Amino acid sequence: MEEWVGGIWHKYITKKANTNYIQAKVDFSDVSKSVGVVFRAMGGHSVKRIEAASARDYLVRRTWLQKIAGENQQISLAWQDEESLRLPESLAVFPTSELNRELYIWLAILAAHHKKSFQHWAIDNQQLVVDVLTRFPALTSRYQKLAQAFIQTRTDYCKRPLAEQQMEQAIVKAVLEPGSVKDFPSVNYAPQAVYLWLYPSAQFNPQVMPNFDEETNTESEESNNTSTKSRSTRKKGERIEDGESRDGMMVFRLESLFSWSEFSQLDRGSDDSDDDDEETLKVAEDLDKITLSKQQQQKSASIKIDMDLPSAIEDDIPLGDGIKLPEWDYKKEELIAERCLLLPMLPKNNEATKLPIKLQKTAKVIQAQFEQLHSVRYWLKGQVQGEELDLNAWLDFYIEQQKGSTKEHGLYQSFRGNNRDISTLLLADLSMSTDAHLDNNNRVIDVVKDSMMLFGEALNSVGDNFSMYGFSSIRRTNVRFTVLKNFSERYSDVIRGRLQAIRPGYYTRMGAAIRQATKILDEQKTTQKLLLILTDGKPNDIDHYEGRFGIEDTRHAISEAHKLGIKPFCITIDQEAEDYLPYLFGVDGYTVIHKPSQLPIRLPQLYYQLTRHQ
């Protein structure tokens, strides 16, 4: 009864204290796609994540009811940093849902033009609004509509202290007439939130390590059954000194320790409902701030390395001492020389083998299609002799003769066989995610093997110059580059054996692998050079390569390939690839295979489409 009454009271007092328009509330999840399109279309950085941010501490003067209900201590605000744009989890500022949606769009436009940190929050926001409206005058009426509606929602400050009244008057004028207010009074409480403006990112605690984000993502990559809120919300974080110190004196009673004879090992049973990860996520969701140790050593990463790396006798066969490669640091805007160590390797326990029986029928169909490329013929224009008269060349000759020119012309055209002057390198992502199962019988790595084998059969039938490599990584000093077929090797059962021997590796340091593939392709003498990248996810590693660093390094590596006349093209089975591949490869530089089981057939077909006019 007591709990029931308490629940009723809590609902009542919370509703009374809430000043938002709950009936018109718009959740971020409802507008996230539209906001993303607007942000990038208006000039926002295309690689930035756009996500909901949890409420942050906001010291504002509260009403008596709000104090009783414990409301209005934290407010969800719009802000951004180098990694992402973070917008309120929901907006119920205005009495209509249309205006709340408009507010989300306006914040995205504002964020797209906010390129530097705030020096003075109110003055800088006014200038930001002025810049946006000056560049896009058509937005003026929409902004004024939001501004007028926003002013009507402001609390009456007539009974507040004089300084707070002056602050409120200054904010109202600054919103209605951006750029008109240069002085803001000092107050003891923060003003009522100005939802039409961006806020600075929360400052780091002086004791917080500078290389850690102030917010911690509660998302677990392994968890598929969490709510949308727990996947998208970001929590405030702080770092503190590690409580485990070796200094000081420990006092204890020796008789309180177990002896060997008293120790009993108990087997704690578990079942499917005992899900620690899910409970941890629920706890994290309820926390306002996540506190982490200030200890710098990343023990989890080192343990993962020790457990994942096989012994030398079980590992793939290394070829040499490694190749040092650069890596792009987007923060410094600098290519750091010799930052990565790439290790060429051969698959362990590979034996020459025939094409698997299950692929032989499909291989014959694909080979028959590719053999048509042999029959492609073309006209060689402007020849001294040939089968037919070249009418265009004759017309040019006739006009020049009328002008008195004596220059000789080839007046014939000759019918020639196709000359496919092309080199192709297939680079396959062999990261640990390829160990995932597609169904009861097949993993991603099995589909990759079949795809590469059919690719080899197809290109071998047409006689194209090609090579195949795989890659994975563990930090920047161990980028594993698996040699499956180089350009000088003949496609044979030895190559098929290597393809059959590949296995899932570790992480996806894509930039280094692309740079090495580019170097190999650049050494080929053909006029056309194609780099095909087969992957199932975005660039990542267990060090700083996660997130934007990996994306930017990969983009820079792809740009380097373009400058050398190499055409990169990505084939992926990652269903979320639309979020980042256009930024990496351009709108025409990739394709997404929505059914991974079709990859073995689709890969040769894509190559056929990309090269049939070469």
From TrEMBL:
The protein, known as: VWFA domain-containing protein
Stretches assigned to the VWFA domain: 423-610
Pfam families registered for this protein in UniProt: VWA (PF00092)
InterPro entries assigned: NorD/CobT, VWF_A, vWFA_dom_sf
Gene3D superfamilies on file: von Willebrand factor, type A domain
Disordered: annotated span: 209-244
Domain of life: Bacteria
Compositionally biased tracts (Acidic residues): 212-222
Organism this protein belongs to: Thalassotalea profundi
